[in-house]
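To fix ideas, we quote verbatim one protein's residues and fold tokens.
>
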Amino acid sequence: MTLVVAKTSSDQSNGRSKASLQKRCLTSANERCLGATYTIRNAIGICAIGLLAACENTTTSTADAPQRELSPAEAIGLFEDVCGGSLPNFKEADRIMAANRVVVPSPLGTNTTFHQSGNVSFNIVDGPGSGKTCSMVVSTNASKAKIRAATAKLGPFKSTALGKAAAYKGTLVLLQKESRIENKNYFNLRLLSAR
């Protein structure tokens, strides 16, 4: 701790008392300042520990630790199991997701559920129109060519009023939101329920 003591009077006795008073005031101010600094540091430390604990609970609440990233072809297989396997209305989607290690809840509190790999998520949403939609979002390091090759397994996609669509098991699968964010390729597949 650095203390600054300044004499403001040439009178020695008066100067000593002023210097002593200034020293006490500065010491008290420094202690309050240091106390506030330690309080802020403690608060930041507690917040950091809380955030780490929340992250840890998200990943350790499952039976296994996060796995390697799923390839686009593996993600398409998972899409066929979860979404295609729970047609016509996706009522069995939660059970099928659990059987395929899609068990990590969204840290944002949404209905989105992540595969243990961390790069694939599913959500059953309302619409478009009447009925439900089974949605899968994938982030991958794979090239767009590998993504196109994998999605081609679902059928030829054609431009429609709903976007790129392919006929699949008596309904439509939509390919949406192909994008690149922070060196990752993203794609979103949506399977419409029987309408």
Notes: Helices lie at 12-60, 72-82, 93-99, 144-151. The first strand starts at residue 102 and ends at 105. Strands lie at 102-105, 113-115, 120-126, 132-140, 158-160, 163-168, 171-181, 184-192.
